[in-house]
Specification:
Elements lengths: L34 E4 L2 E4 H24 L3 H24 L8 H29 L17 H11 L1 H6 L3 H12 L11 H6 L1 H9 L2 H7 L2 H21 L23 H22 L15 H18 L10 H18 L2 H11 L11 H22 L1
Amino acid sequence: MTNSLRPNGDRRAPLPPAQSPADGVPSPRSPHSTQKKQNGKQRDAFFDNAKYLAIVLVAMGHAWEPLKGDSRILEAAYQVVYAFHMPAFILISGYFSRSFDMRPDRLKRLITGVAVPYIIFETAYPLFKRVIDNDPHQEISLLDPWYLTWFLVALFIWRLTTPIWNLVRWPLPLALGLAMLATVTPEIGDDLDLQRVLQFLPFFVLGLVMKPEHFHMVRRRSVRIASVPLFAVALAFSWWAVPRMNTAWFYHRDAAQELGAPWWTGPVMVLAMFGCSLVLTACFFAWVPRRQMWFTALGAGTLYGYLLHGFLVKAGDYQGWFEASWLHHPAGEILVTALAAAVVTVLCTKPVQRMFRFAMEPKMDWAFKKDAAELARERQGAERREREPEKVNA
């Protein structure tokens, strides 16, 4: 699963430049880094592996939620996973947003790849609840993200503000300051899930300021070895903290006062959770394979797995699938965990992507004006095609 058995030992292979593959700029090939060309774009196996493994952890965490009940061990594992799975995913999103600007083609991709899927799934989830849960009163609101769609709202806002974070002198301290202020401001309310947008913001900004060498640092053999006892300590501490700590802190969706805590604990928890999440995220990255794996190609479809698996989790919740007593024993919990990993894996595959591309990655060329540069390229191409027959006749 790792590169620790390579003869090169700790020799570090170069990671791709910060530009997102979506920008159409292929990263240079390297004999030490496993890259694959997909849809004419260069991808890096490390990041695709990390995204896939993170989305599997997301699905597992959602499957554990209705099962954990009074299980202290499962609750402890749940807290540890929630401490780093979304921070890791958000950090990668920030890293690949470094080159985002207000260029028309990038704004178009932001609208079609984030805003439109948000509108579709923010409508689909409440409709699904009306049908499956027989709840005709379930409202549809584009201002109040429902279940998983908060991430699309957050990503849209974060990416739009990227030029600002690339401009200011101290982006990460500023982002942490905003997150700390959010935790003492319950008046923010639920509109666009701004509490989560602001409290998770530091992880996105950290991704913006990271460089390839930072990922090299966590790939060292010493870090991989140290990550094992660190995860063990995290699990032990979480087991101790289960009866003493409100799990809602890991969701980053409430102010301190809404959790029944003194206001000053909000800023303290932001810094404490940020530090713990960074340590566990580094441990997670340390064990992410860099080479091509059987699941590497699935990393390109993680948003499909993220948004689609929610329907199955909610269907199980509405229909009482998780209420069977045998599921609340170790064997049942292991089975549900394996099923969650298998289902989200299937939802990341190419056939599923082709089936739901209309909702996740619509082209929508009809909705956008062509920019001047694109029109100029088309004119040049037409003129070139017109001249070619003249050369052939000559």
